[in-house]
Amino acid sequence: MIVSSIDLTRLSPSRLIPVIEISDVAAAVPLAEALTEGGIPVAEITLRTPQAVESIERIRAALPDFRVGAGSLLNAAQVRRAADAGASFGVSPGLTPQLIEAARASDLPFIPGIATIGEVLQGLELGVERFKFFPAGNLGGVATLKAFAAPLAQTSAAFMPTGGITLDTLADYLAVPQVFAVGGSWIATRDQIAAGDFAGITERAAQAVSHVAR
Ligand code: 3PG
């Protein structure tokens, strides 16, 4: 059985997924509103801070149309916590059978991380079709992704590169046919969120969206 798959157009019409580290639950809803105003009604809240799960719950309660995902999921318990908090999707930097089984059991659309073709093949065998290519920049960027995509073209594998992506490189990644989205923390940085710079986040989101539209 395929792991619950994601409706990509609903996930992010712009194909951009801001990767968020949040340390103040009070910032969660204003952050989501700022991203929405900039044209990106989606975010991956990483479970790297103790405030992440409550932030997901608050966004879920206040903005039901916002697609809030949970990122940096490292084990099955975190997958279940993310699903219980109401996350629309889950992301992990890596791929293990336990993570995939937990996502399937929780009916959580899930994007595990891969850095090799072997991991992609293992994911396909386990019923996963969407993968986070991470850390994209360190792995050789668009050139490596294209080299992966060529032999995998006859499979259903699709990729979301993250790690080191900037405004200058995002269009090159999105031009690869197997890329369904691009993720990154530059759209809403930890410092911007901590400083309450929501206008700046809206501006960065709008700037990224306009780059994609070019
Ligand atoms: C992630 O978890 O996807 C990365 O930390 C995001 O990478 P970036 O900070 O280089 O955008």
UniProtKB/TrEMBL annotation:
Record's protein name: 2-dehydro-3-deoxy-phosphogluconate aldolase
Organism: Microbacterium sediminis
Homology family: Belongs to the KHG/KDPG aldolase family.
Keyword Lyase: yes
EC numbers on record: 4.1.2.14
CDD domains reported for this sequence: KDPG_aldolase
Protein's pathway: Carbohydrate acid metabolism; 2-dehydro-3-deoxy-D-gluconate degradation; D-glyceraldehyde 3-phosphate and pyruvate from 2-dehydro-3-deoxy-D-gluconate: step 2/2
Catalytic activity annotation: 2-dehydro-3-deoxy-6-phospho-D-gluconate = D-glyceraldehyde 3-phosphate + pyruvate
